[in-house]
Write a structure and sequence with these properties.
- The chain has a single domain, classed as Serine Threonine Protein Phosphatase 5, Tetratricopeptide repeat, CATH 1.25.40.10.
- It is an all-alpha fold.
- The protein is built from 4 helices and no strands.
- 68% of the residues lie in helices and 0% in strands.
- Helix 1 packs across helix 2, helix 2 runs antiparallel to helix 3 and helix 3 packs antiparallel against helix 4.
- The chain is globular.
- The longest helix is centred in the first third of the chain and has 13 residues.
Length: 77
């Protein structure tokens, strides 16, 4: 919600914090969303390699979108 300003003011820093917490708790969607933040440079320095790792973690934990994003980004690096 913070990333997209849905119901709250857009706040990439808060979104980054929440995605990091959820990914550290092995939530696959949190990892994929955190990967999006790194891939696009939202509240962080753009880092496609870190995004790739996060997408892979999301994929490994069962998120199909993470698998698709991993494959797409891997082919572009």
């Amino acid at each position: 919600m913070y990333e997209n300003g849905q119901g709250v003011d857009e706040d990439y820093t808060k979104a980054l914090e929440l995605y990091t917490t959820s990914c550290n708790a092995d939530d696959p969607i949190g990892c994929v969303n955190l990967g999006v933040m790194y891939e696009n440079g939202y509240a962080v320095v753009k880092n496609k390699e870190k995004a790739l790792v996060l997408y892979k973690k999301g994929c490994t934990e069962g998120d199909q979108e993470g698998c698709l994003k991993h494959k797409k980004l891997e082919s572009s690096i």
